[in-house]
Known about the structure:
Layout: H1 3-21, H2 29-37, E1 58-61, E2 64-66, H3 69-79, E3 86-90, H4 96-104, E4 107-112, H5 115-127, E5 133-137, E6 150-155, H6 164-168, E7 170-181, E8 186-194, E9 197-206
Parallel strand pairs: 3-4, 3-6, 4-5, 6-7
Antiparallel strand pairs: 1-2, 7-8, 8-9
Amino acid sequence: MSLGQTDALTQARERMVEAQLRARGIRDERVLQAMMRVPRHEFVPAEFLSQAYEDHPVPIGQEQTISQPYIVAVMLEQLAVTPGEVVLEVGTGSGYVTALLAELAREVYSIERHAPLAQAAEQRLQNLNYLNAKVVTGDGNYGLPEGAPFDAILVSAAAAEIPPALFAQLREGGRMMIPVGTAHSQRLQRVEKRDGRMLVTDMEGCRFVPLVGGTGE
């Protein structure tokens, strides 16, 4: 990649942060700085490089996408990850959100159902020196019991309902961000565990690929 192309991508990332995120109400400076540091263009296929910093999802293969930057920022802001926390991500995809979480948390575990995506994401994260992120192949509905409890969980695929296993793996006081609904009608939900009970806050509409696999019971 030429120096000129690198500079152009950096400028595009700056515009993304300012115009798509800050201007639309994202206020968490840690999230904004993480999204400025992580090179989103490294996580999209070469044929979509020119769209890397546009405000829409981008295909990454296996009928999956890298999510719209604004929705990613909303989820991260609401998740409110602190530097000492351990986070579970369901739906690694390209590894972009994994990298953002690695910027924000002490340790990140990420589950991806599609082995080719998991392997590519793990290599990409290693190449970018995100050594506090671990990618595993599996059914995200069931979480990752060996890493639980988690301080926060981010789900990058839409579930018909909140998977019980994921809620069970949240630490008391922990938070989860998850899109819930059908293929045509989804809303982001913020879930907190308080006294062992589920406190759910409905947020804005969204559109994610479906979370497939087991029921997670």
